[in-house]
Amino acid sequence: MIVVLHGTVPPDAPKDEQDTLVEAREVSEALGRLGYEPYPLSCTLDLRYLADSLAKLRPEAVFNLVESLEGKGQLIHLAPSVLDHMGLPYTGSSAEALFLTSNKLVAKTLLEKAGVPTAPWMTPEVLQKGSLPFGPPYILKSVWEHASVGLDEDSVIWDERALLQELSRKKARHGGKWFVEAYIEGREFNLSLLESENGPQLLPPAEILFEGYGPGKIRVVGYRAKWEEDSFEYNHTPRTFSFPDRDKPLLRRLSDLAALCWALFNLRGYARVDFRVDAAGNPWVLEVNANPCLTMGGGFASAAEQGGFSYDRLIERILKSCLPP
Q: Which pTM was predicted?
């Protein structure tokens, strides 16, 4: 038996959380086609109930799809911590790696110390002191939440006097902690990595295109671009895996940086690193995503398909990477 573990999703949850149920169903169906016995299991903050349920089920392994608990990405590491405590093998990155990469401020600090280029940032505390370390444009981001929660055009600010007010609005509307990052105008790339016996295998790189975006429209892959199917942003931000020869040096640089991120955070199983490349051709790491979404047709599965992996083969590869040889 393979337990397919995910966070409990209420009926009125936003689309980014509802997507977890789609992911769990598609992974379970793939495991069934591969000859495994999948057992979907949802979990909440009642970790004792989770531990008791797993003790009764005695699975061979756990396919960990927990991205949040009760809608809070800050709690992503709790479920794998329980799995570690019980000695159960599970897919993807460790509890420690999930914590470090999910907190964007911690991740950016570690990236900077390792010499990996990441966009400059500041906390609200620095902002309140009045002496800003960099100038506009700025972009406001959640410290913990991923899936572009709270991220859209209004997150990009040119007036430093409005930053504190906008941060307060974000916190009031979405909750949690927020920070300010330098907004980098340029191209956006996703580099996906898959564990192999010889270290991480780099899958074909993807670029997000901003088609039909005029000079005054902000180029961000925000919440609408990811989740609102009727929006302009959703329908005008396709990904491409085709590049001209002149991009080869840039793609090699992005691949090297993605592999460095894998090693820095001791990632396992599968991961994705998101980049912005500025007008001068300089790459900047935006986020390191341990355990990115595995829905069919999503970014990671699409990169794997470009790399020659069917969806079922991808799921099997991820599962086997956590099992004893």
A: 0.93
